[in-house]
Amino acid sequence: MEKGVTMEITDRREFLKKAGVLGLGLLATGGIAGIAASCGKAEQAIQPIATVTAPPVTVTATPAAAAALPWPYKKLDAVAAAEAAYAGYSAGGCMYGAFEGIMSQLRATVGSPYDTIPTAFSKYGGGGISGWGTICGALNGIAAALYFPFAQSVANPIINEVYGWYGVTLLPDYTPAKPKFATCKQSVADSQLCHQSVTKWCLASGFKTTSAERGDRCAWLTAAVVKKTVDLMNLQADGAFKATFAVPASVTGCLSCHGKGGALENVHITNQTDCKECHTPLPSSHPPVK
Ligand code: HEC
Ligand code: HEC
After folding, report:
1. Is 253 in the pocket of ligand 1 (CB under 6 A)?
2. Can you tell me which atom of ligand 1 is nearest the CA of 253?
3. Which atom of ligand 1 is nearest to 285's Cα?
4. Could you count the other beta carbons within 10 Å of the beta carbon of residue 3?
5. What count of Cα atoms within 13 Å lies in the side-chain half-sphere of residue 125?
6. Of ligand 1's atoms, which has the minimum distance to the CA of residue 251?
7. Which of 90, 177, 183, 264 has the most C-beta neighbours closer than 10 Å?
8. What is the pLDDT of residues 249-267, one digit of tens each?
9. For 144-199, how does the pLDDT look when each residue is reduced to its tens digit (9 = 90+)?
10. Which-ligand-closest: CA of 272?
11. What is the largest CA-CA distance in the chain?
12. Is 101 in contact with 84 (CB distance < 8 Å)?
């Protein structure tokens, strides 16, 4: 019987409902006791409070041996950066391709201290961070790169612009000089996450995620993201960057109740291209949404 119940459970909410309904009967079988204990409150109740004597800590934005940020910026060749990103993808994945794509041009154009960054660290971001399908590595890479030449207040609006564009645009929109495959299907990710971005493309193109074509698509996409970013960095250097991405009304509508100052304030998101990607349909008990 326990096995049958487990098979029927389709998501956490359903699971908790069923666990609630079936209550102690199920718990007594021991089968779900471990899972129940791992749910929020149950876990808090059984955690012993540890007493530790921690040494005093010091945090610093700039260790003594490092040059303080932001570092100098000179306008870069966006196509050269995109080509380096395409090549970098094969050498170390999407985040490395994006990060090294920009850093290689900063080294070539500005020089020191950009030549002190071991860009290989950015390989961690491949496949949405070590294959976890979270943030697209190309997006992770350009965000990291932007924080070197620009202060946070300058970098964040450019990040928002690139991330917003990425969510709503048919991509890739840049064709590498010598691509592995001559063409690449375009798709809209509706998301900044590796998983949605890749799978939407697979649905649009008919290729498998493990195909060489999919790998090449992510290389094209890495190049496209870097091209877009460097174009915006150059506009910023000219004092001509203007943010155009606005969080869509469908999202600000959700956040009017679920975001800061809303009646619920339970969603820790300020920028997003689409909530309904993951929240359709809303339960029938949900208040009406425009
Ligand atoms: C008018 C205010 C309001 C707006 C706008 C709103 N919500 Fe909600 N939302 C609520 C309230 C109140 C609840 C709690 C309802 C309940 O407990 O039955 C809720 C619950 C939810 C839940 C949990 C539902 C469940 O029980 O599984 C999700 C998910 C959710 N909202 C997503 C959204 C999304 C996505 C949007 C935008 C498309 C949105 N909400 C817009 C007020 C709002
Ligand atoms: C990538 C998928 C994804 C996106 C995008 C997303 N959510 Fe969620 N959201 C989830 C998941 C998964 C949960 C946890 C679901 C659960 O516990 O039922 C959740 C939980 C919630 C809840 C709490 C539901 C509850 O249990 O009461 C609300 C409210 C919510 N999201 C609103 C939003 C809003 C508003 C946006 C857009 C700003 C958004 N979400 C974007 C996946 C997403």
Report:
1. yes
2. 5
3. 18
4. 8
5. 26
6. 37
7. 90
8. 999 999 999 999 999 999 9
9. 999 999 999 999 999 999 999 999 999 999 999 999 999 999 999 999 999 999 99
10. 2
11. 69
12. yes
Q: Is 267 in the pocket of ligand 1 (CB under 6 A)?
A: no
Residue to mutate (ligand 1; options 257, 265, 268; most atoms within 8 A of CB): 257
CA distances from 244 to 5, 48, 64, 158, 247 (A): 50, 50, 38, 10, 10
Question: Is the torsion defined by CA of 25, 28, 34, 38 positive or negative?
Answer: positive
Q: What is the CA radius of gyration of the chain?
A: 23
Asked if residue 275 has its Cβ within 6 Å of ligand 1, the reply is yes
Q: Which residue has the tokens 């949900």?
A: 286
- Tokens at residue 242, please? 């203007």
Q: Do residues 187 and 200 touch, judged by C-beta distance below 8 A?
A: yes
Nearest of 105, 102, 107, 143 to residue 125 by alpha carbon: 143
The one-letter code for the residue type at 275 is: C
261 CB within 6 A, ligand 1 = no
Write the pLDDT tens digit of every residue in 64-121: 999 999 999 999 999 999 999 999 999 999 999 999 999 999 999 999 999 999 999 9
288 CA to centre of ligand 1 in angstroms: 9
